[in-house]
Amino acid sequence: MKDLLVLKGIIIKAENVNDYDRRLVILTDKRGKISAFVRGARKPNSRFIAASNPLNMCTFYIYEGRNSYSVNEIEVTNYFDDLKRDYDSVYMAMYFCEMTDYYARENNDELELLKLLYQSLRALESSQIPNDLVRAVWELKSLTVNGEYAGALAGNTYDPTTLYAIDYIIRTPVKSLYTFTVKEKNIKELLIEGRRAIKAVTDHEFKSLEMIN
């Protein structure tokens, strides 16, 4: 075992393994996306039962082994409880996590993507921001962060407000993204642009979209 690592991150996937263990996929601030094992996480008296669930923002104390990471301790800083009480928001959040799992890589600098995921989960908790707008912002900004989106194509027929919103999403720092609202017709156009942009860079089918659509 190497020295103890202290990483901040969000659990984007959790899978049960063996009798009591759990494998976590975590988007972290220093190591990008990692997989880590939590031994005994599903034992009835385990302190990790609630802490090792998806969508938790945590500080992780982790040992790096020769072939895998092992979690020694988890401190949850945000359970996103309000989000988890609403099924529509949970499905949307799982879509964000599935996209994150697809795009993020181990040992990459994924800090901006982590910030975006955190702010997007917070936005899903807000009653002031429609979930479809959160989705539209997430799709376009996540592609921007990954260097795969630079704006709408020339010759588009979008409303000027939609084009302004696209430019705002591209250029605005993550922490200030979810500070605007637009009309329903503009949200629909943003979603159309998000689907177009994603299709242009990947043919991957995200399973969680079936629950949303």
Task: Please describe the topology of this protein.
Layout: E1 4-17, E2 21-28, E3 33-38, E4 57-64, E5 69-78, H1 81-84, H2 87-103, H3 111-125, H4 131-145, H5 160-171, H6 184-201, H7 209-212
Parallel strand pairs: 3-5
Antiparallel strand pairs: 1-2, 1-4, 2-3, 4-5
Helix pairs in contact: 2-3, 2-4, 3-4, 4-6, 5-6
Structure description:
This protein has 213 residues and is an alpha+beta fold. It has two domains: 4-78, Nucleic acid-binding proteins (OB fold (Dihydrolipoamide Acetyltransferase, E2P), Beta Barrel), CATH 2.40.50.140; 81-212, Up-down Bundle (de novo design (two linked rop proteins)), CATH 1.20.1440. The chain contains seven helices and five strands; from the N terminus they run βββββααααααα. A five-stranded mixed barrel has the order 1-2-3-5-4. It starts with a strand and ends with a helix. The relative contact order is 0.13. The mean pLDDT is 95.
Which percent range fits the helix content? 25-40%
CATH topology of the largest domain: de novo design (two linked rop proteins)
Strand content: 15-25%
Strand arrangement in the largest pleated sheet:
1-2-3-5-4
The coarse overall form would be elongated
Oligomer: single chain
Count the beta strands: 5
The domain count comes to 2
Instruction: Tell me the structural class.
Output: alpha+beta
Task: State the CATH superfamily name of the largest domain.
Answer: Recombination protein O, C-terminal domain
Q: Provide a count of the helices.
A: 7
